[in-house]
Amino acid sequence: MVLKLNISNKGKAYKVEIEPEVLSGKKVGDTIKGEEINADLSGYELKITGGTDFAGFAMKEDVEGITLKRVLLTKGWGMQKRPRGDKKKVPQPDGLRLRKTVRGNTVFEKTVQINFNVVKEGSKKWEDLTKKAEPVAEGEAPAEEKAEGEKEAPKEEAKVKEKKEEAAPKEEKKE
Prior knowledge:
By secondary structure, the chain is α+β, with helices and mostly antiparallel strands. It has a domain of 116 residues. The chain is built from two helices and seven strands; from the N terminus they run βββββββαα. The protein has a five-stranded mixed beta sheet with strand order 2-1-7-4-3.
């Protein structure tokens, strides 16, 4: 199973997929070197801020180990303003607490996704890492590189030609 990493810095995210053995045993809050993840991240220092397991349960820093645990939450981390299923737009009742399932703070083989924040910048600029290359369809040259002879006819002329071709067979049947 592939481990998906979301690395963010000042609102820009960089996504990487690696094998889970690389980070197994690390905990939420640990800092690691970028070289351990990808050669492009040399010089970067990253902090693990959270993640999820294969079922979507969030990793909570307060829960030790890899186990699932039911914890009592108040408004804040992992809890919305109103309980689920409450469609009314009423304010949250005072003292509302809900018991929710969370995953422990240790990365293991069933962890699917991990979030990182950049603590220290590396040699490459962050903007260069987050740029996306524009995909080009296979077997088709970009519009700027087409030769003059290959240019397409304007849309209006193409429609007129199609209408003439459709009209020609109808005239032959009438005669």
